[in-house]
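[worker-b] picked up task from shared queue
[worker-b] task type: protein-ligand structure
[worker-b] ligand name resolved to NAP; SMILES cross-checked against name lookup, match
[worker-b] sequence length check passed
[worker-b] input payload:
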Amino acid sequence: MRKISQSATGGPEVLELIEAPDPVPATGEALVAVAAASINPVDIAFREGLFPMLPDLPFTVGWDVAGTVAAVGEGEAPFAPGTRVFGMPRFPKEAGGYASMIAAPAAELAATPEAWSDVQAAAVPLAGLTAWQGLVKAGKIQAGQRVLITAAAGGVGHLAVQIAAAFGAETTASASAAKHDRLREWGAVETLDYASEPADAKGARFDLIFDAFGGETTEALLPALVPGGTIVSLRDPSAGTRERAEAEGKTLRRIGVRPNGEQLAELARLGAEGKLTPEVARTFPLAEAGAAQTWLKEARPVGKVVLIP
Ligand SMILES: NC(=O)c1ccc[n+]([C@@H]2O[C@H](COP(=O)([O-])OP(=O)(O)OC[C@H]3O[C@@H](n4cnc5c(N)ncnc54)[C@H](OP(=O)(O)O)[C@@H]3O)[C@@H](O)[C@H]2O)c1
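[worker-b] inference finished, payload out:
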């Protein structure tokens, strides 16, 4: 099989395409012939050596994969060879996602719905699980709630807007102005340009805020949240944000995504019902993984960037 490997951390030039033996699926695992693998910002953090838990060198970055089960290990086999599957196995441990073959725990995969190509399915796992775990699990989203989603045209955000719409929320989505038509297509009833319109311009009106940019932006969103409301952030907020939220009677949750096959199946169900359509901005050959990561960082695309092994 082919895979991307790096023997040092650093810039995109550390990523090398190499040949390697196919992985062997252990008990409870599936061997997947990867048709598409998507890129997430965290892949770049691993490549650069900036993620707190790094595997030993050499390692292969990447978690999001979609393809077809080629073989199964011993034990229960929920997916027969030939089944189309998608997932983000093992995160944040090494999974070897930028590769033409991957061995993955079957419990961390789900069947790909007919409605999605493999390229679209590869765009879903990490971003989609983050949106699901943020909105549904941490945020306990309810029909009729007023929900604000930031970075709403990015990998996580564009899936979050569609999930919120599927739950019957009244969604305001924030992104740079050129992307606003897409936000409405995904189900946002209102759009905000974060560069010119503060989220609290119309007062504290959101029951739930999903801050898909996260980190330093979270504190400035607090005034837009009603007392008793919840704000979910994807990166560590500035010092003092949590205390301020508590003092205002608001809940702040900082989440870290984890693999979950059952939740992937929920996302697949939304896909089959036509309520969740992954957006792929561009594909690159696996050999151009470094250029693809740089493009994701610099072009600020709508949706996801996908590698084809
Ligand atoms: N905690 C977790 O488990 C977890 C999981 C997944 C992702 N993340 C993190 O969440 C973030 C989003 O991930 P992603 O995959 O959606 O990334 P992405 O596809 O690169 O999208 C991020 C979007 O943020 C927008 N943006 C840039 N600067 C902004 C600002 N100052 N304020 C608001 N929006 C801004 C950009 O669009 P426009 O500016 O054009 O609107 C960009 O498209 C990344 O930092 C990622 O590492 C964390």
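[worker-b] attaching auto-annotations
[worker-b] The pocket of NAP is lined by residues 40-42, 126-127, 130, 150-151, 153-157, 175-176, 179, 194, 212-214, 217, 234-235, 255-257, 296, 300 (CB under 6 Å).
[worker-b] releasing lock
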